[in-house]
Write a structure and sequence with these properties.
Blueprint: E1 6-10, H1 13-26, E2 30-35, H2 38-49, E3 54-60, H3 65-69, E4 73-76, H4 82-91, E5 95-98, H5 104-112, H6 128-145, E6 149-153, H7 159-167, E7 171-174, H8 178-183, E8 193-196, H9 208-219, E9 223-226, H10 233-240, E10 245-247, H11 254-258, E11 266-269, H12 274-281, E12 288-291
Parallel strand pairs: 1-2, 1-4, 2-3, 4-5, 5-6, 6-7, 8-9, 8-11, 9-10, 11-12
Helix pairs in contact: 1-2, 4-6
């Protein structure tokens, strides 16, 4: 086994999309270990059909120990993952590239800088994940000091973070979904007004009644609703009662669904990683993204 052998280890469709962008950017064909879920499988099939540089897509449950042990360079979708912390502490990979796991990219960058605890924001952690955290953090920082850690991100980490990470040896590589846009077929006919679904009610971060009120407001009598992958059937049933709203289930990341748009879209969303990803995916189309600022939450309204 060569220490530069690459393996993408992903746990969500967005992480898998990041792996496709990384492979295209580095012009390398890579094997993928993907968590065994229907959504990752469907996203993988779609990416492969678009020409993603993947080979040997291996589904797994838990930690793919044997695959990780055979590869010295890990592309990691979720640096906060307890499974990653444990595997990294035990196997100590030679090189690591961190992919985006949504807007947690910013919190993880602060974690790598020691500015916040090695813990997922707003989650009370306990058990083995907390025990492994300091060992994983130290391993990552040692690899960074040897110039063997890269952060591959679509997010603007800010000059302060970039300077601090660079001083500690972390490499930063920005991407703008260039491969996603270049490989996209024409987007499906969805109309010009799109509402992006959210899992905020599912996660207890917003009352369902308030969410439904927002959906009714932004639907404005005619819109297509793209569900979030973690919405429950009960939430979708409630959303479906909105007059003039048509639900379109694609079971793919919204970035893949919209990347082929040629005409301007009017897109409404609650604060999420889409505030960053969708403007990049739709660059040059004249589309407008409206993000509702929630009381007690962060977000921006962009046009």
């Amino acid at each position: 086994m060569g220490t530069q052998d690459v393996l993408a280890w992903v746990e969500s469709p967005l992480q898998l999309l990041g792996a496709a962008e990384w492979a295209a950017d580095h012009r390398i064909t890579i094997p993928v270990a993907g968590r065994l879920t229907a959504q990752i499988s469907e996203t993988a099939d779609e990416l492969v059909s678009r020409g993603a540089r993947f080979r040997d897509l291996e589904p797994y449950l838990g930690i793919p120990w044997s695959l990780l042990a055979r590869h010295g360079h890990w592309l990691v979708g979720d640096g906060f993952s307890g499974q990653f912390r444990l595997a990294a502490s035990v196997l100590r990979p030679h090189r690591i590239s961190f992919l985006d796991d949504g807007a947690l990219a910013l919190a993880y960058a602060d974690t790598l800088l020691g500015r916040r605890p090695y813990a997922r924001p707003s989650i009370a952690e306990r058990g083995l994940t907390t025990v492994a955290a300091p060992f994983a953090a130290e391993m990552v920082r040692r690899r960074a000091a040897a110039r063997r850690v890269e952060i591959f991100t679509a997010f603007d980490l800010g000059e302060d973070r970039l300077d601090a990470l660079s001083d500690r040896g972390f490499g930063i590589r920005r991407h703008d979904f260039a491969w996603t846009r270049a490989s996209a077929p024409a987007a499906p006919e969805l109309g010009s007004r799109i509402v992006l679904g959210s899992a905020r009610p599912v996660d207890g971060r917003m009352p369902l009644a308030g969410y439904l009120a927002w959906v009714r407001e932004v639907t404005a009598g005619d819109a297509v609703y793209l569900p979030h992958r973690r919405e429950t059937p009960e939430q979708l049933s409630a959303v479906a009662a909105t007059p003039g709203l048509r639900i379109r289930e694609t079971r793919l990341p919204v970035e893949l669904v919209l990347a082929g748009a040629r005409e301007p879209l009017d897109i409404h969303t609650l604060p999420s990683s889409t505030t960053t990803t969708i403007p990049l995916v739709l660059a040059g189309t004249g589309s407008r993204l409206h993000t509702r600022v929630l009381r007690g939450a962060t977000g921006v309204v962009s046009a």
